[in-house]
Design a protein that fits this description.
Blueprint: H1 3-9, H2 19-25, H3 27-40, H4 45-53, H5 72-85, H6 87-104, H7 109-116, E1 123-125, E2 133-137, E3 140-150, E4 158-164, E5 182-188, E6 193-195, E7 209-219, E8 223-224, H8 243-270, H9 286-320, H10 325-352, H11 363-375, H12 383-393
Parallel strand pairs: 1-4
Antiparallel strand pairs: 2-3, 3-7, 4-5, 5-8, 6-7
Helix pairs in contact: 2-5, 3-5, 5-6, 5-8, 5-9, 6-8, 8-9, 8-10, 8-11, 9-10, 10-11, 10-12
């Protein structure tokens, strides 16, 4: 999509509800590039240019550094809209935006502006583990480690890492709460060695490679403790949500977008295909008609459950600047449940399409792989629902990922 096509949507300030219109306008471009990005394991230059033009890598960062501070309910709809065109693109937008927002919240404003002020800036990082280390030195840390699943790393300008702080004698440094201290460190992508190892079932276009650094100096100004409300430098409604709940809201939108694309594609197929064992075209088959109605209801119910819960949480964050544990648990339950429901709709559409769905030339195969890959993420794990059940029952526990 060139700038003239984007202009047809109208000028859209980042972070306004109209940003959703811009996401929807990108659907045909993303759909056209989806298969090639799946093969290349990275987003195409044309897609990246359109995302930069729409300012989609700064949707969640504070307005004070040029970002959009997009309300979380709108952000969930944006990831859903993008995933209807291409799931990998939507995944990178969710991952990159939440990572940038949850970093900028804890950085000195001038540092945050330097790192994220450019619309072409993009941050990627992998999951936290205990095999890396950040050793305190004068003015910062010496960081060593390798991290995998760095979605968006191929177009990223910045990399980050969540690292336990290890003293010179090898012991873990305690934080303010007495527990072992972690730091999230940010550094230029050029400082790391990238390992081309993203060979996955789905979401291939995310280019989620592994990266490593050895004894890399990271200054204190680029090392933060995320998800600690007392250390926030920005106090907008978004910062009332943990990074986990922001990721969960965006990735739920991705799962919904994949399922909607699968269902729309199945509807198009059913309107004209006659199964070899059937006497009529699929649209005239009573069993197909029933299944379509049930899948529509299931997907629409999941979508409204997600958006309704995110909106309730957002209203609380705007009104009070914080979220109660009940609200956080409600959002965790909604996002986890919706990822599961959307995945089941995608599976049902794939199976209903018959042998047509197995061919790479048809859109079912790639979207089915994307749905299966998305469903495996931490945010969709069933143990979250078990945790919410304990909360509702009043069982004592140490809540996680809320």
């Amino acid at each position: 999509m060139d700038s003239s096509q984007l202009e047809a949507v109208g000028p859209v300030p980042p972070g306004t509800p109209d940003a959703l219109a811009r996401a929807r306008a990108l659907r045909s471009l993303l759909d056209a590039h989806g298969a090639a990005m799946d093969q290349a394991c990275e987003l195409s230059p044309a897609v990246l240019d359109a995302l930069y033009e729409a300012d989609f890598f700064r949707l969640l960062t504070p307005r004070g550094i040029g970002g959009g501070a997009t309300p979380l309910p709108i952000f969930a709809e944006i990831t859903e809209a993008l995933a209807r065109g291409d799931a990998s693109t939507a995944w990178c937008i969710c991952q990159g935006n939440v990572s940038a927002m949850s970093s900028a919240t804890y950085l000195e404003p001038e540092v945050a502006r330097r790192l994220f002020g450019d619309r072409r800036s993009a941050l990627a990082w992998g999951a936290r583990h205990g095999r890396a280390r950040a050793v305190p030195v004068a003015g910062g840390y010496r960081v060593t480690g390798a991290w995998d699943f760095a979605s968006g790393s191929r177009h990223a300008t910045l990399l980050g890492a969540h690292v336990p702080v290890v003293l010179a004698d090898g012991t873990l440094r305690p934080g303010p709460d007495g527990k072992p201290e972690d730091r999230t460190v940010l550094f230029p992508k050029s400082a790391a060695r990238i390992i081309d190892d993203w060979h996955s079932l789905g979401l291939r276009g995310t280019g989620s490679d592994t990266y490593e650094v050895v004894d890399l100096f990271v200054p204190d100004s680029h090392a933060i403790a995320r998800d600690r409300p007392e250390e926030r430098r920005d106090h907008g409604p978004l910062t009332a949500f943990t990074s986990h709940l922001c990721y969960a809201s965006g990735f739920s939108g991705v799962a919904l977008g994949i399922a909607r694309a699968m269902l729309d594609t199945f509807l198009e197929l059913a309107r004209g295909k006659a199964a070899r064992a059937g006497l009529t075209i699929m649209r005239d088959n009573h069993a197909v008609q029933l299944q379509v109605g049930q899948l529509e209801a299931r997907l629409r119910a999941a979508r409204m459950y997600l958006l309704g819960t995110v909106r309730e949480a957002w209203e609380e964050a705007v009104a009070t600047g914080a979220l109660t544990m009940d609200t956080r648990m409600a959002l965790r339950l909604a996002t986890t449940h919706v990822i599961g429901e959307a995945t089941e709709v995608s599976v049902a559409c794939y199976r209903a399409a018959g042998t047509t769905a197995v061919l790479e030339s048809n859109p079912f195969e790639r979207r089915f792989r994307d749905a299966m890959c998305a469903s495996q993420h931490l945010q969709g794990g069933p143990w979250h629902i078990e945790m919410v059940g304990r909360h509702v029952l009043g069982v004592e526990q140490s809540p996680q990922f809320v």
